[in-house]
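Quiz preparation item.
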């Protein structure tokens, strides 16, 4: 069923009229406002502040006078007798005396030759008589190391001659507290079976570990 709109409720008939009436009324109100209220304007009032004038006093720059240093005092020559001058002179003796010659330097070649004759590796290495236990039995544990609780292994390099004697020692690894010296002393107390090269006894370097352990 189609809807039928009431002609009296149709506002499209009078919208043009009402628009014109509203525009005329708006213009009339604006004209009346300009006619009856001509003094309503935005006026900006600027206030001028009086600035204080600060006077800067000029300070005169004073110059400091630098006094020149005093002149040096003139040196007065002092007469010295000829005898006194002769006493200050040093007379060198140009004659070479035999007793003043320095002593000859110690022979270095002999020590180097002896060091060179000690072998590092040979066919038959030297061995301590009684084994490594013979050396350990002669180790005296230092008291200072015991109190400090120091333990470890000291490695001593010992040079063994053709007769099985220790002729030289070097501390390769130490732990301190007197243990290094105790290991060297124990090694020197032991006799060794000498090392040999091609059936002939020779001097050989041997690394010996000495263990320090608290019970």
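Solution:
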């Amino acid at each position: 069923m189609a809807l039928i709109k009431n002609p009296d409720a149709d506002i499209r008939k009078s919208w043009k009229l009402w628009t014109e009436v509203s525009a005329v009324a708006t213009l009339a109100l604006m004209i009346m406002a300009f006619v009856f209220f001509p003094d309503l304007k935005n006026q900006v009032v600027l206030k001028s502040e009086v600035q204080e004038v600060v006077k800067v006093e000029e300070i005169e720059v004073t110059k400091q006078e630098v006094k020149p240093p005093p002149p040096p005092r003139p040196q007065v020559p002092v007469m010295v007798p000829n005898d006194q001058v002769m006493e200050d002179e040093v007379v060198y003796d140009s004659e070479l005396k035999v007793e003043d010659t320095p002593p000859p330097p110690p022979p270095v070649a002999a020590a180097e030759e002896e060091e060179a004759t000690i072998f590092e590796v040979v066919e038959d290495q030297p061995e301590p008589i009684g084994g490594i236990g013979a050396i350990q039995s002669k180790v005296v544990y230092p008291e200072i190391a015991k109190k400090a609780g120091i333990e470890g292994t000291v490695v001593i390099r010992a040079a063994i001659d053709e007769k099985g004697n220790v002729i030289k020692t070097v501390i390769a690894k130490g732990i301190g507290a007197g243990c290094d010296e105790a290991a060297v002393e124990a090694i020197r107390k032991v006799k060794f079976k000498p090392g040999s090269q091609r059936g002939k006894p020779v001097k050989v370097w041997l690394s010996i570990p000495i263990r320090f352990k608290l019970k």
